[in-house]
Design brief:
globular, two-stranded antiparallel ribbon
């Protein structure tokens, strides 16, 4: 049986870019995702980079992204950008 990873490593710059493109404030995004504004700021600024699956899914939903969208995820260090 396939198990999801215990945490998702996220790209803070991508979170900020997508949030701003959606016209959402940090307060509104955090409220929609059920997380604190401070936690969201830490993610966007790179102080924190790992999210548990439930919080990751809630943030993705708050930003209006579909479940299979991976734009919030950090690329592995060995992977080249497209």
């Amino acid at each position: 049986m396939h198990r999801p990873p215990p945490t998702f490593q996220v790209n803070g710059a991508a979170i900020r870019t997508i949030r701003m493109s959606a016209g959402l404030s940090t307060f509104e995004t955090a409220k929609r995702a059920g997380i604190s504004r401070r936690y969201l700021n830490h993610l966007e600024n790179g102080y924190r980079a790992n999210m548990r699956p439930g919080r990751y899914a809630a943030l993705r939903t708050a930003l209006g992204l579909p479940p299979d969208d991976q734009r919030l995820l950090a690329r592995p260090a060995h992977e080249e950008p497209d």
